[in-house]
Specification:
CATH topology of the largest domain: Hypothetical protein af1432
Number of helices: 20
Helix content: 40-55%
Radius of gyration: 26 Å
Structural class: alpha/beta
Shape: elongated
Number of strands: 16
Length: 551
Amino acid sequence: MTGTTSIRESSIATDFANFAPSEITGDRILAAIDVGTNSIHMVVVKIQPDLPAFTIVDREKETVRLGDFNEATGGLSEAAMERAIKALKRCCAIATSLKAEDIVAVATSAVREASNGQAFIERVYDEIGLAINLISGTEEARRIYLGVLSGVEFNGEPHAIIDIGGGSTELILGTGEPHRFLSSTKVGAVRLTAQFVSTDPISEPEFSTLRAYVRGMIEPNTTGLKSHLQPEEPIQLMGTSGTIECLAALVASDRLGLVPDPLNGFQMTYEEVSRLVETLRQATYAERLEMPEMSARRAEIIVAGAVILQEAMGLLNADRITICERALREGVVVDWMLTHGLIEDRMQFQKSVRQRNILKTAKKYKVHLDRSGRVAQFAMDLFEQTRGSLHTWGNMEKEVLWAAAILHNCGHFVSHSSHHKHSYYLIRNGELLGYTETELEVIANIARYHRKSTPKKKHDNYRSLPTRYHRQMVTHLSALLRLAVALDRRGIGAVESIACDFDTDTNVLKMDIIPAHANDDCASEMWNLNYKKDYFEQVFEVKLAARLIAC
């Protein structure tokens, strides 16, 4: 039985690989924006698909401090949002001037946790036309890994990566192949400064509290990372982010009398970091501001950032750390290249990360993959055979429908009763890698509406979809999924295939159903299809006429 499941999983993944867009040649320009807790960063790259590789043609950074929350509401402050929108407008103008064909923006810790984070995303879209993708901490870690891999060759040796942001710190372990460990912890330089630092220079009690808190928060993830190493297996530590680069610049200035440009590949020891922490904690804000490469905003938060690095290095038993200037935004570029079928080299393992995580989640919740695979195939057939006549959705929407079809019954893991609602919850909170928060919300909603109630604005899950576009996607694709589920009503593979043809004169979608066995009238499937077709007919404003074609 196990062998059969494995083969089926493989075939599903192989089939889905065919969804990748056709090969595109010629250089392409892409902009990637990281909307962080402390800063907004953008890289504009020229992608050369024939290599495949990308070259950074422009970098932009602005410290907007989105993490300065409104204490009364727990949300982003009006001033912070205005600073961010101004910076994003400038980024978009630069990207447009450089003829970027796409601008991909992701938001992390501050927007994830703010009570008005979704409202901010909608406001950015309304005022600028820029769609921001909210990603989970684990997904952020995965993309940081991709960004580092785009600039560093690991040679199969284990590397730990630490990225210290304004609101969170990511720890990653990998060898250049699939990651071994991904984590995100709610400790960041902006967050900790706001929570623990009120004196200048920081007082001994505040410093002791800060250090103890950091150690307590990151120790579980450093322990988790080390548990994925073989006994006595050495690791090399790499650091990314503005905080670590600033610390490296201070060490380099002290040791070399100058700051290397670029910092990429520069190493600093644990002893140097520890000495620097002592220097920073004893310095006033004005004194820190006089240090090399220190901006006013960085000087405010650098003590907390330095403590995070020192504690992480100590817990990982790392005697030195190497700087890598590629991180999340470069990872966003790599992910875009993977999604668009432009990478076939050593990161090929990441190309199907979405599909593999869907199948992994299906196994976790004991989904019957043979059955869900048939439903997914019917959904794909319906999607393709009605594309252009009933809808104009593209490959990305097709991929979302496939994911929902595979996981639509995962709620059975909780309970048979109202399992469609349980499916929504499990998908929405499963932290599936490779997907943005909005994509997860769409997938979960499509699965939620594969049976029983149709989408309604009074439903919190449907109302939480960010735009009318996303609500329409859920409405259309859930209607297709309902028919696909009906075609496998008994779960025995009674229907071999379907063939649809839309008659524009009569406004009728004709569906021929070919049974798998000549002596099976597929009565249960035909009845269920007729029972569920009302919603489909209402959504697409057509009539459905299904008939069984004898073998």
